[in-house]
Predict the 3D structure of the following.
Amino acid sequence: MTSATGSQNTSHIKSIEDLHGPAGRLEALLNTGRDDAPFAALVCHPHPHGGGSMHNKVVYHAMKAFASFGVPVLRFNFRGTGLSEGVHDEGRGEQDDVKAALTWIENSFHKPILFAGFSFGSNVGLRACCGDPRVKGLIGLGVPVRAGGRDYTYGFLPGCNQPKLFISGDHDVYGPRDVMEAVFARAPEPKELFWVEGADHFFQPTPNSPAQDSPGARINIMQEHIRTWLRDHFQL
């Protein structure tokens, strides 16, 4: 495949058999990337009780944004999801799963790490990655405040000094604009909040969007803004 920068990327996908967290083996896939890539990346999935897994469409498109620069990208299923061992732990043990994935990436690639997470995966991943010196940049997609009867809090953000990008649909019912802007205000610089117009939580068109709108148009906007941010902040 050809990267966004025009260089040739020979990335391919392989299953990872040796990623283990405290609850047992974690099912994982790696997009291998280039040997000379300056970073490696981790992408985390939304809530499994809503059908979230590493195969989620938003997670896939985030992975593709990193992979377009030849960056190796790890995706995995949280405990109790897919073939991952253990049971769901409402975001507590899942933070340990993220830390196990970071350690696997560190040991496998010896590169600084970039993180992205969608919905539940953004909250859990930001908690685990904020302040971790191995992680140089953070992306929260569809950052939730209240979803499925679950409240998500962000009191940890003031201590999160890495560059941060937040992308949400401007019709995201799980992270309303006024509430999300208040969350964003608590985060220190450097930071950016980008709204995808006419998009819901899943970066799909809202019911009142023009009929000719492509179902994939807004998720493509999300993906392209990730690429732009990565170029601007990490010279990819």
